[in-house]
Automatic annotation (TrEMBL):
Keywords on record: Dioxygenase, Oxidoreductase
Family: Belongs to the intradiol ring-cleavage dioxygenase family.
Pfam families xrefs: Dioxygenase_C, PCDO_beta_N
Keyword Oxidoreductase carried by entry: yes
Domain Intradiol ring-cleavage dioxygenases: 78-106
NCBIfam families the UniProt entry points to: protocat_beta (TIGR02422)
Biological processes per GO annotation: 3,4-dihydroxybenzoate catabolic process
Protein's UniProt name: Protocatechuate 3,4-dioxygenase beta subunit
Length: 240
């Protein structure tokens, strides 16, 4: 495999780097023209993730941080498949996910929102896709939270997803939103996305066929890596 052999990305699918409505982009946007760098063989082929790195409860956020109690909030299942541009499942992809708790607060030392921490909820996990690209996780539906972008801006409820291939350079990051959330269309970050269809591919529909009665609702979120139906990834203009 030679350097730079990955498919080129469609930059028109992504938000402009400089979008003043999203204030952080003002300082983060590049000031000079981008430079394309080829990947080295080591970046594309290693290190390889093994199944033995995943713990039994890593994909169960209801259990992987519990300290003798149940997390507070609406219990949900999120499931789906990681697919390539032809619709084939991608096996063995490492998924990492992190989120705020039911009150909209992250477990992070720099968190400033006043909502309380949940002593039984850590807010992060990981899993590997199976032979047909499927994955599944259990968690609490995250809450919305305010952020210092505008006078009264709120982030809609969302879960962050990181998708690894078989090396650290093969990483894509995205966010999953929830069907019916009115804050999606008011979010300054979402507003930077030029194509409504791209936004809609970030919204997970309710999937009551996979819900657990008297326990958990379910949402389906498929992640498409490339092609015309690709999921929008936050770092695609920078990485692979």
């Amino acid at each position: 495999m030679s350097g730079g052999s990955f498919f080129q990305r469609d930059r028109n699918w992504h938000p402009a780097a400089y979008t003043p409505g999203y204030k952080t982009s003002v300082t983060r946007s590049p000031q000079k023209a981008p430079i394309s760098l080829d990947n080295t063989v080591s970046e594309m082929t290693g290190p390889v993730f093994g199944h033995d790195l995943i713990g039994e409860t890593d994909n169960d956020l209801l259990r992987n941080f519990a300290h003798g109690g149940e997390p507070i909030g609406q219990r949900i299942i999120v499931h789906g498949r990681v697919l390539d541009e032809t619709g084939r499942g991608v096996p063995g992809a490492l998924l990492e996910f992190w989120q705020a708790n039911a009150g909209g607060r992250y477990r992070h030392k720099k968190e400033t929102y006043l909502a309380p921490l949940d002593p039984n909820f850590g807010g992060c996990g990981r899993t590997l896709t199976d032979a047909d690209g499927s994955y599944r996780l259990r968690t609490i539906k995250p809450g919305a939270y305010p952020w210092p972008n505008g006078v009264n801006d709120w982030r809609p409820a969302h879960i962050h997803f990181s998708v690894f291939g078989h090396g650290f350079a093969q990483r894509l990051i995205t966010q999953m939103y929830f069907e019916g959330d009115p804050l999606i269309w008011r979010c300054p970050i979402v507003a930077t996305i030029p194509d409504r269809a791209a936004v809609e591919r970030l919204i997970a529909p309710l999937d009551m066929n996979n819900a657990v009665p008297m326990d958990s609702r379910a949402y389906r979120f498929d992640i498409v890596l490339r092609g015309r139906r690709s999921t929008l990834f936050e770092n695609r203009t920078e990485g692979n």
